[in-house]
From TrEMBL:
Secretion signal, residue range per the UniProt entry: 1-23
Keywords: Signal
Keyword Transport: no
Pfam families assigned to the protein according to its UniProt record, in alphabetical order: SH3_3
InterPro entries on file: SH3-like_bac-type
Keyword check for Signal: yes
Organism the protein comes from: Herbidospora galbida
Protein name (record): SH3 domain-containing protein
SH3b domain boundaries: 136-187
Residue stretches in coiled coil: none
Amino acid sequence: MDLVKPAVLAAATVFCLALPAGASTALPAAASSAVAVTAAPSTVHAGQTVRLRTKACPNRPGYAYSPAWGRSVTLLPNGVRATGTATVWSGTKPGTYSVSVACQGQTYPTAFGYLTVVAAGTSVKYRVQHVRKGSHLNVRSGPGLGHRVVGKLKWKATVQGSPVREKGWVKVTTKNGTTGWSYGYYLRRA
């Protein structure tokens, strides 16, 4: 079973300000009403490209900044939201980085979010979820339904995988050593 649920394709949204390491994550009153900026995927390796979206600038360009890429990136509006892409610097160290967006003509940020950078080769343990008892989750040769099935994971099975998702898919390695891709909706960090 590896049906792709459209509602799951949205990236996780978290509100945040640019904070130094160890600072409080409580939002100031001005930021608590701010709109979010989402980065998809929200967990990446250094050198990876992320898609940015915000509803803060629906009718004018926005400018996204994060220490993870170190310069402003233009987000183009489409009447509903502003979107764009950014590439995380190849030398970015693992950690959580703030993302802020200021709309054209504004000197202060109006949207905030997080981006997590992990070290290459980082692995996490997942447990299969949302699969009926007695059923299985397909492991495919690539990130998509068009790739052939190379393995199966049983209900509540555990598997090692990448913390980084590619279009919602997670690269996993089964206990018998098979490496492939399963849809992330069906995997929960164990």
